[in-house]
Write a structure and sequence with these properties.
CATH topology of the largest domain: Alpha-Beta Plaits
Structural class: alpha+beta
Helix content: 40-55%
Shape: globular
Low-confidence stretches: 1-12, 203-207
Number of domains: 3
Number of helices: 7
């Protein structure tokens, strides 16, 4: 299902929301009626429903091609994608904060995600030869991660910790990180499994 809402700003902005409903016929009818009630109150311009597989795939194709649209729309720039997750009760505020942060820093970017679980991403198109722009992109990432952690969220909803988000682990997990480090040492005393990522024992000075 595709929901379009026309913005009241001077820009022709029409955010698109994709919703997928599951259940028996009576449950689906109730869910759809409730959805209509909500989006009508928010000024929804149009709702498109699809029930067959081919039709659903057609609707979802726009979502899947979003990243490619950004890439082709900004030649010469590199894509950077953020990844945080917050409790559903904090999601609306987090998305508004993210949009305001992108605009405040003057960056090129849009927000996407499968937000039903609180996980969302900012797609940024960065000129990697512009040191100030790269710095602003890093500032944006720090900003939204801090916002998420302050609201009992996580620094990564799906992309993983890797190397870049190790610095947030102590703040996110607190004393539980010590237990995670102990498990890592017990199961991987030689630090040969994914070394240097997620929990870097060498960096922690425990090797």
């Amino acid at each position: 299902e595709q929901v379009n809402r026309h913005s009241g700003t001077d820009y022709d902005i029409r955010p698109t929301l994709f919703l997928e409903f599951h259940g028996n016929e009576a449950g689906l009818a109730q869910d759809i009626a409730f959805c209509r009630e909500i989006v009508d109150e928010l000024g929804c311009e149009r709702i498109d429903f699809e029930t067959d597989t081919e039709g659903r795939n057609r609707l979802w194709e726009a979502r899947h091609n979003l990243a490619y649209a950004y890439i082709h729309g900004h030649p010469g720039r590199k894509m950077m994608v953020t990844d945080v997750c917050v409790p559903i009760s904090e999601l609306a505020g987090a998305v508004h904060h993210a949009r305001e942060s992108v605009d405040r820093l003057g960056l090129i970017g849009g927000i996407t995600g499968h937000v039903g679980d609180g996980n969302f991403h900012i797609i940024l198109m960065i000129d990697m030869d512009d040191a100030e722009e790269v710095r602003k992109a890093d500032e944006l990432n720090e900003d939204i991660v801090s916002y998420a952690l302050d609201r009992n969220g996580t620094c990564t909803g799906e992309h993983g910790v890797g190397i870049g988000k190790q610095k947030y682990q102590a703040r996110e997990h607190g004393p539980a990180l010590l237990a995670m480090q102990a498990i890592k040492r017990a199961l991987d005393p030689g630090n040969i499994m994914n070394p240097g990522k997620v929990i870097d024992l060498k960096q922690e000075g425990s090797d």
